[in-house]
Amino acid sequence: MAPSTESTHTPNRPNAGRIRRAAAVTAAVITAAGLLSACSYGSKSTDKASAAPAASAGGAKLSADTVKIGYFANLTHGTALVGLQQGLFQKELGATQIKTQVFNAGPAEIEALNAGSIDIGWIGPSPAINGYTKSEGKSLKIIGGSASGGVKLVVNPDKIKTVDDLKGKKIATPQLGNTQDVALLNYLAGKGWKVDAQSGAGDVSVVRTDNKVTPDAYKSGSIDGAWVPEPTASKLVTLGAKVLLNEKDVWPDKKFVITNIIVSQKFLTEHPDVVEAVLRGSVNTNAFIKANPDQAKAAANAQIKADAGNALDAAVLDPAWADIDFLDDPLAGTLQAEADHAVTAGLLKKPTLAGIYDLNPLNKVLKEKGQPAVADAGLGAK
Predict the structure, then answer these.
(1) Which of 29, 47, 106, 167 is the most buried (most CB within 10 A)?
(2) What is the pLDDT of residue 177?
């Protein structure tokens, strides 16, 4: 938060210099804190417990009084957005209160999960893989899917007309090692171009840029395009960018995981009934989204406004929402592929992902609803 603007006039009294020095130190501290916040993973991690529907006093009593849920105020986390806005999670949780935290980036959400600040989270595949491998398989489990798609390579059409024109250009991704960063590096490697994974320097310059800054970077010409999730991709299109590639087109069956549901292993062991209730809410929410796409889109936008302060314009919201598929299947086979892509890019040593999934609670919920079970691609709980 910026410091308040005050008069520059200083009275001529003995302690004026000390006051000026104190003010300067205070401003420096505020500025430094702001810079750290802007640069850190999860620069906006706010407790939004008041935004969740109140627990039902007459609801069923589950094993936990509270469940702490983390997610992003992004359309790719639409299941969380819609389920919270429509009260579909709270309906299943009964007297168990929901408390929420909103994150900007996956690593901060993983840190929060490890610290016990959240119990369950909606998150991209790369942070989930990193969190699992760094903890040697002890921190989390992926317990369900949430979304596929919603990622595009958008470019300045005056500078880039074909894929071959990417060479020598500056292409943004949201963050070093995040899911879109891995996807771009893997794609460029497949074209035979060399890029240093850490610095982003090479035949194509990969510029790590916060999604909130990317539109301004595009307008200023400091980047020539971006491999980004929605709604950032559609926002760039409103600024004159063109879609060069939809990431769906590089995946078999045009499906790849963009958002999963994770849980801390401790919470899963201690409160399996609460985990099942959240998953039941997630399944119900995905069904609601499919049956009521316009109402769901409006609900997601309302939750984004509540969490981020601003709703999305229709010119951004409509195409972005249409490109995302909401589903219960975690698309486990594509998670392994994304891990392999990170290895190819030089961002990750060959990970051991055996046991990263526990889909038993989800498959129990799906069976209750007469739906087929989903598979863990051999990476499930033993």
Answers:
(1) 106
(2) 87
Predicted local confidence at residue 12, as pLDDT:
37
Cβ contact 180:112 at 8 Å: no
Q: What is the pLDDT of residue 104?
A: 84
- Considering Cα of 139, then 259, then 151, then 209, what sign does the dihedral take? negative
pTM here is: 0.83
Cβ atoms of residues 185 and 195 within 8 Å: yes
In this chain, the answer to whether the domains covering 46-149+255-368 and 151-253 adopt an identical fold is yes
46-149+255-368: CATH topology? D-Maltodextrin-Binding Protein; domain 2 (3.40.190)
> Maximum Cα–Cα distance for the chain, whole Å?
80
Contacts for 17 with CB less than 8 Å, ≥ 6 apart: none
Query: Given this model, what pLDDT does residue 382 score?
Result: 60
How far apart, in whole angstroms, are the C-alpha atoms of residue 164 and residue 176?
23
Residue 253 DSSP label: G
Nearest in space to 146 (alpha carbons), one of 17, 260, 266: 260
Contact 73, 307 (CB under 8 A): yes
Domain locations in the chain? 46-149+255-368, 151-253
Burial class (CB in 10 A: 0-12, 13-18, 19+), 162: exposed
φ/ψ of residue 246, rounded to 5: -95, 125
C-alpha–C-alpha distance, residues 154 and 242, integer Å: 5
Sign of CA dihedral 52, 58, 59, 60: positive
Q: How would residue 192 be classed by pLDDT, with cut points 50, 70 and 90?
A: very high
CATH dotted code for 151-253: 3.40.190.10
Tell me how far apart the alpha carbons of residues 104 and 275 are, in angstroms, rounded to a whole number.
24
291-309 average pLDDT score: 97
